[in-house]
Every structure is written in structure tokens, then in C-alpha cells.
Amino acid sequence: MKTYAGTGVAFGLGAGLAESLVDNVLRDKVQPVPGSLVYCDLALAFEHSGIYVGNDQIVHLNGDGRVEAVSPARFLQRLGGFNPAISIYVSCRDKQAVGSPAAAAQAMQAIGKRQDYNVLFDNCHQFSSWCLSDNRANSDSFTWMLKDTAKAHLHANTWRVWDWED
Known about the structure:
Layout: E1 2-3, E2 10-11, H1 16-25, E3 37-41, E4 47-54, E5 57-61, E6 67-70, H2 72-75, E7 89-93, E8 96-97, H3 101-110, H4 124-133, H5 143-154, E9 158-161
Antiparallel strand pairs: 1-2, 3-4, 3-7, 4-5, 5-6, 7-8, 7-9
């Protein structure tokens, strides 16, 4: 089961496209602010996350263990583009994007650094959580854990699609 972004409503497997359609057509879109947490769907129940740092750049930990700044289009190309991602979701409080300048600064300072990457024990969500919380030893291996950290540090209570142009 998959939870509809920001609502707690669960959908069955394969509903990601329907969810994205609703989010892109019926809900208000937002522009992220520096330090916003962003994520996109990958495959099945997996997502990819990063920190928006301004100037249409997202800092993320890629699958090779390198921290890099990328465009929204490049962020969506995880798994060589073989994923259902068509939307990037932004941390919001109600209908407004929220972020943390300290999280953006933390992410920027990490660009170019390398670390061991492990899909379960040292992944993009833990990198993003570290930027938000300054807790390098966090255990936020999954998006739902990371969203709890965003709620605690950004007071994010919903997720909206980023209104960006390719």
C-alpha cells in the first residue's frame, strides 16, 4: 500500500501514476525554498530524497556514494530514468513550502564528498535527515522516517508538487 502524499489516504500498488495525476492537476503546486526537503518516487515503494538549495538545484547522495548538486530533471533520472517519477514533492506547512537555511548550508558544504552507500544503512534519506537535523548517526533509512524528521525540524505537515519547468 502507498500513502497519498500529505493526506494519509492509502492506495494499492500501481496507484503512483494516479496519485501523481491528482497532485499535478487538482492540487496547488509550490516552489521550494532553500532547505526544503524534496523527494520523488522511484519504483514500487521506494523514493529518492534531497535538499533544495536554491537556483533550481537539489543536493542529494547518489547511488555511487557521491554528494552532488543536480537539476530537478537530473534528480528525476534516478535508476537511469527507469522509474515512475514525474513529480518532485516539497516539504510544506499547509500550502506553503518550508525549509531551513541551515539544512541548505549543510547540504552545500557536503557537495563533492564521498561516503559508502548502502540502500538500507547509509542512503539518500539519511543524508537528507542529517542536513535537517545535524544528526549524522540518524536511522532515517525510509521516507516515512525522514518525513517525521521534516515534521519535527521544519514543521512540515503536507507534501506538494514542485511547479518547475524542464
